[in-house]
Amino acid sequence: MNITPKITVLIAEDHVVVRQGLCSLLNADGDFKIAGEAKDGREAVNLAASLRPDVILLDIGMPFLNGIDAARQILAAQPAARVIILSAHNEDEYVSRAVDIGAQGFLEKQTSSEILAKAIRTVAGGQPFFSPAILRRMQLMLVVPLDRDGHSVANGNRLTAREREVLQLVAEGAANKQVAASLGISIKTVEKHRQSLMDKLNIHDTAGLTRYAISTGVIESNLLREVL
């Protein structure tokens, strides 16, 4: 008798209760095995590299590295990785950015357990899966503006991956010295990236960078209430 291997899943979610709930739901299904749990984007990148799960479920709003940029790093290192973005945000901009970097799925956090399980099975099988509401909007889209590289145009697409990392840490309240230590680069390099950010975005103070980071989904607003 052949036994079908369970689908291994890495769950990246900074809220403990939500993460535990997702683990319980998937464990109860019987078709899935939780390969690992990450509480922030950087841990998700490291665990994805070491565990090589069948599917990686990523929240967007995580500290240190948000889910979109974590997915970008994971897929750059492992092009065959299968990533599903799970978020409370379902605006077209978030979906477009997820698709641009190669995510195979996008689910809203209010998604039912049945749809979550179906999405993981579908993506594990090599097919994309989007929440029904998101899929309907995608089908209604007419022409998505493209840049010269063929990527959809969205706020922040002009920024490099490193600039986006610096933007997130600055918006989360880190000083240049802390940013440098976190990214393993010099303070002078941080200053160059920070100045480049301000020049590209035409934003000239930290509060402005923070508001931009929130509005474009680099961080979630509840992370920075005290800063603003």
Fraction in helix: 40-55%
How would you characterize the largest beta sheet? 6 strands, parallel
Contiguous helical run count: 10
CATH topology of the largest domain: Rossmann fold
The gyration radius over C-alpha positions equals 18 Å
What order do the SSEs take from the amino end to the carboxyl end, as H and E?
EHEHEHEHEHEHHHHH
| Strands, total number | 6
- Beta strand %: 5-15%
CATH superfamily of the largest domain: Response regulator
CATH class of the largest domain: Alpha Beta
Descriptive tags:
228 residues, alpha/beta, Rossmann fold, Arc Repressor Mutant, subunit A, 2 domains, six-stranded parallel β-sheet, disordered C terminus
Description of the molecule:
The protein is α/β, with parallel strands linked by helices and 228 residues long. The protein has ten helices and six strands; from the N terminus they run βαβαβαβαβαβααααα. The chain folds into two domains: 134 residues, Response regulator (Rossmann fold, 3-Layer(aba) Sandwich), CATH 3.40.50.2300; 60 residues, Arc Repressor Mutant, subunit A. The protein has a six-stranded parallel beta sheet, sandwiched between helices. Helix 3 links the parallel strand 3 and strand 4. Helix 2 packs parallel to helix 3, helix 3 runs parallel beside helix 4 and helix 7 packs across helix 10. The protein is globular.
